[in-house]
Design goal:
Blueprint (H helix, E strand, L loop, with lengths): L1 H22 L1 H10 L1 H30 E4 L3 E7 L5 E7 L2 E4 L4 E7 L3 E5 L12 E4 L13 E11 L5 H9 L3 H17 L6 H4 L1 H20 L2 E11 L2 H85 L3 H14 L18
Antiparallel strand pairs: 1-4, 2-3, 2-5, 6-8, 7-8, 8-9
Length: 356
């Protein structure tokens, strides 16, 4: 169509020039004087006008048959005239020949985030997930507690023919469908955990949600879920206050138990100290006893040795001086009297206090 328009336009310009020459005598005479040379020049002017049009036409055609895929995108080829989509081939980033009427339906090749939150300033795909926990051990008849879960997860679209299946199944609303599938899956997983598990088993809860979302989105949406982050879990205020009070009581109980353990350690320390002091006293008493026994034995041995030496000396004196037994006794008596400490000892009187 552009080529026919350009050719017809050049013909119109040529025809209009001849009509002007016929209507203007000056132009006719000028053309006759120039003769055949003027005809050749007019032909050259027509050729010069068609050449730029052909270049422009070629540029337009190239623009219409070449399209690009961005560096963080994947593409499926569709035809604007027929509406057909080629789901058998996934185009990588770069320039591609698409033919006349061809264009790309673009998909993200990077990880895409689904966010469930009501936090201000955060671009969320949906509000918090409203669901219930599993059965509460403290209130079995309640059937669990209502909660709201704020979390985010990341998924990656396939870069194979499976992307065509994704488009065939969900069209351009695949992200909204994945958001709905993830919401339902998270709600189901939350109902398998008790309220206390959301405090005491947070890591197990997050891992269970990740595995469940990976399975459901892979099975239903052919995408790979790579990560999941729990941002906030909200219970009803009354229940949170009750749990807070219970936890405070548990902590107080733990504090008292630790205090009792400290007292038990201190008491054990006192018992050990008293035991050690008693042991030290017993050891010291035994040492004093042993020392006393050794001292007494030494004194006794010394006394025996001294008496034995005195007896030997007395025997030696008696033998040397040839004393009789009565003389030896008298000698010992005088020896004893000489060593007596009193200076009022009376010797040789039968009644020292009798009057004369």
């Amino acid at each position: 169509l552009p080529l026919a328009w350009l050719v017809s336009g050049a013909g119109m310009r040529l025809g209009s020039g001849e009509e002007q020459a016929e209507n203007n005598p000056l132009l006719v005479s000028t053309g006759r004087r120039r003769g055949h040379g003027a005809g050749q020049g007019q032909g050259l002017r027509v050729s010069a006008g068609v050449a730029p049009s052909m270049v422009f036409l070629a540029a337009v055609v190239l623009i219409n048959v070449i399209s690009s895929v961005g560096p963080l995108e994947l593409g499926l080829l569709t035809n604007s005239f027929t509406g057909n989509v080629d789901t058998s081939q996934v185009f990588a980033p770069g320039l591609h020949f698409v033919g006349i009427g061809g264009r790309f339906i673009l998909f993200p090749s990077k990880q895409v985030t689904i966010t469930f939150t009501d936090q201000s300033g955060v671009q969320a795909d949906s509000g918090p997930i409203s669901t219930r926990t599993g059965e509460d051990v403290n209130q079995p008849e309640s059937g669990g507690q209502p909660i709201q879960i704020c979390l985010s997860l990341q998924y990656r679209l396939p870069n194979t023919k499976a992307l065509g299946t994704v488009y065939t199944s969900f069209g351009s609303t695949f992200h909204q469908r994945y958001t709905l599938i993830a919401r339902n899956t998270i709600s189901n997983v939350a109902q398998t955990f008790t309220p206390f598990d959301f405090w005491t088993k947070r890591a197990e809860l997050s891992e269970a949600m990740l595995r469940a979302v990976q399975t459901s989105l892979q099975h239903q949406g052919l995408v790979e879920v790579t990560q999941l982050q729990i941002m906030r879990i909200d219970f009803p205020q009354q229940y949170e206050d009750m749990i807070t009070n219970i936890q405070l009581q548990v902590q107080e109980k733990s504090v008292k138990e630790y205090q009792q353990r400290v007292l038990a350690v201190l008491n054990n320390f006192e018992v050990l100290r008293a035991t050690n002091e008693a042991t030290i006293t017993v050891v010291r008493s035994r040492a004093v006893q042993a020392a006393t026994v050794l001292q007494n034995q030494a004194h006794a041995s010394a006394l025996v040795m001294f008496q034995s030496a005195k007896a030997n000396a007395t025997e030696h004196v008696a033998r040397t001086l040839e004393f009789t037994e009565s003389q030896v006794i008298g000698y010992l008596r005088l020896k004893a009297l000489s060593s007596h400490p009193s200076n009022r000892t009376v010797v040789g009187l039968k009644g020292p206090f009798a009057s004369q």
